[in-house]
Amino acid sequence: MDLFKKILSNRGPLGQYQEVGHGYFFFPKLEGEIKSRMMYRGKEVLTWSLNNYLGLANYPEVRKADAEAAAQYGLGYPMGARMMSGQTAKHEELEQKLANFVGKKSGYLLNYGYQGMVSIIDALLDRKDVVVYDSDSHACILDGLRMHMGKRFVYPHNNIENLAKQLERATKIIKQTGGGILVITEGVFGMVGDLGNLAGIVKLKEKFDFRLLVDDAHGFGTMGKTGAGTGEHYGVQDQVDIYFATFAKSMASIGAFVASDKEVIDYLTYTMRSQIFAKSLPMPLVIGALKRLELLQTMPELREKLWTIVNALQSGLKARGFNLGRTESPVTPVILAGGIEEATQLIVDLRENYRLFCSMVIYPVVPKDVILVRIIPTAVHSLEDVEYTIKAFSEVKEKLDKKLYPKEMAKW
User: Which of 83, 167, 213, 316 could cross-link with 208 by S-S, CB 3.0 to 4.6 Å?
Assistant: First the structure.
């Protein structure tokens, strides 16, 4: 069969809805300044769909630092990959400050989070090694694992007892191959907001010999006493062997970093193909990240405001009988019963009649007959925003329960 005919005959679980959903349910356009209210299809909406946790995307000092760096350096400098011609003192400064903040000896900047995680896994493992990972791991982890030529075992989400069984299997294999064991989990699981059981995982180090890689994209800046992440929250950051986070959430930018012992970072620096063969992170993004990190560390009130909004929203929704699953983080999943037809009608109602913009998650990301509306609180939301949102959700849930939404997919 012709390759193009093959792919066009099966567009995938999301692509099959392209004709009815593109531009509305998928790839919508939010316009204007990044804040709690933005423009959508010519109308202002209260937006709960941006990972701008600390409100730094539009913070005046951040905007000033970004603009001045862009004016001074442009987007071209440094030119080339870091190994060849793209190294600067500012890149090194940011790496060390990030490493110090998360309690590690050394750090390494990455151009993108998704690409970075794939490349970290590829660089760390060979066919002799065994990797054990949480079943709810992010797509970037799963794509990295596809490159692994050795054994890989999955354990049910946060099931420490089963993880121990997988580690027993892995231990038997590496005794034959001479390889090592890597355990991978997330700090905060970004879809439903619960935490990886880092305390339970590191406890297993007393019995098994393995290294732990934590993807803390949603935990960096939001979790822990200082915002240093989920490891800090649990008090086990020193037992996290490789710490990874992105700038796309609390830092409201582009890029990522990995932190560990100096020898490990030195190894990754010389083996991560996605960085060796990629242009260096542009200087405005580096200087902008330095400013964001400074504010993250020196303005705890931003994180405190975030958690004020999170607690008000989550406690208010729970008081109205909403199921928020297992969330222990700012990620707020509102779990409702219904299929894709009801889901699209509900989202249209929220956007058009209540002027609320939230993201819809449907099968196959969640089980069939489940609607997950994902709310992301930020430090720029207000308690008035929270009160209005709880009222709106109560009204649309009543309509859903009474089966008032048409049993057909909304089309746009």
Answer: 167
